[in-house]
Amino acid sequence: LGVPYEQWKVLNEIDAGVCEEMTYEEIQDNYPLEFALRDQDKYRYRYPKGESYEDLVQRLEPVIMELERQENVLVICHQAVMRCLLAYFLDKAAEQLPYLKCPLHTVLKLTPVAYGCKVESIFLNVAAVNTHRDRPQNVDISRPPEEALVTVPAHQ
């Protein structure tokens, strides 16, 4: 781009621990209890040997403070990180944060307005799967696998 830039390790994606690089289906197959526990409280759930959204928010606090001091900034980051940043700037509750929609290959432009931010989405012309998963109705530990996976988006 020909502009100054910095790479910050703190902007890395949420650490999924033992579930890193697994699909939703693989996590349900290999760790059904963990899959259910995450569905019960996605914000506070911590992956085994990994992080929770709550941990990620704490990790991002210095970034948020730095963004508050800047004027125009372009942040390129992963979806969980973007959800945390959006939740902060849009004043969303912790329970809403993990379910904020952040499509892949999309620029989200935040413009400060009275009592919040205006969000504009600029979709880039890049083919990508939908990775957004709504909270399932049945979050019981003893639910059948097909109910656990009902909100998993279709993918190839």
UniProtKB/TrEMBL annotation:
The protein's matches in InterPro entries, at most eight in alphabetical order, are given as:
6Pfruct_kin, His_Pase_superF_clade-1, His_PPase_superfam
One Gene Ontology BP term is: fructose 2,6-bisphosphate metabolic process
Q: Which domain of life is it from?
A: Eukaryota
What Gene Ontology terms describe what this protein does at the molecular function level?
A: ATP binding; kinase activity
UniProt keywords (A-Z) are: Kinase, Multifunctional enzyme, Transferase
Task: Name a Pfam family for this protein.
Answer: His_Phos_1
Assigned protein family:
In the C-terminal section; belongs to the phosphoglycerate mutase family.
Q: What is the recorded name of this protein?
A: 6-phosphofructo-2-kinase/fructose-2, 6-biphosphatase 4
Organism whose genome encodes this protein: Macaca mulatta (Rhesus macaque)
Q: What is the lineage of its organism?
A: Eukaryota, Metazoa, Chordata, Craniata, Vertebrata
